[in-house]
Amino acid sequence: MPVYLFPDSKLDFCKTDLFAFCRLFLQHEELLAVFKKKFKDVPVDQLAKSPELENHASQVMSTLDEAIHSLNNLNFFFELLYTIGVTHRDIAGFRPEYFWRIEQPFLDAVKETLGERYTHNMEQIYQVTIKFIIDTLYKGYTKGAVK
Ligand code: HEM
Question: In the record, which residues are listed under signal peptide (predicted)?
């Protein structure tokens, strides 16, 4: 499934993003531990390469993509991210500060994907945008539907 970051440029983000996000979970033992708890049937040594983890990476990217495309419709933007923030409350071992672990890998993935089109200006826009997205997820988790 291709992910579109800009309406006018279709970027095949999938390969880099999945790779980057699966790597993220491998590097952080405490993130992987959340998946270990959730997917008890998956042997620990296979979790890293599991469809469950890959599926989540793809859900994260689709969410970020949708959020970026909803910046012109803030009601939808908040609704989307608050809801996802709230669903993470049901995940044993999850902590809301874990959302922030996505920030740098996301920026790296965008940089890698855009190549020379990743200008300084673009970098600043993405830095602000990802902070806004994660802050909203965090608020969704901690405050629920309170806007
Ligand atoms: C920007 C950050 C993140 C986004 C946008 C995101 C997005 C999502 C979405 C859309 C779902 C599916 C929710 C549903 O079906 O109701 C999900 C599920 C889940 N997320 Fe996240 N997530 C993020 C970060 C994390 C982190 C850091 C962890 C672990 C430490 C995590 C663990 C999980 C787990 C265990 C599930 C359940 C998977 C399943 O049941 O198949 N998420 N996430």
Answer: none
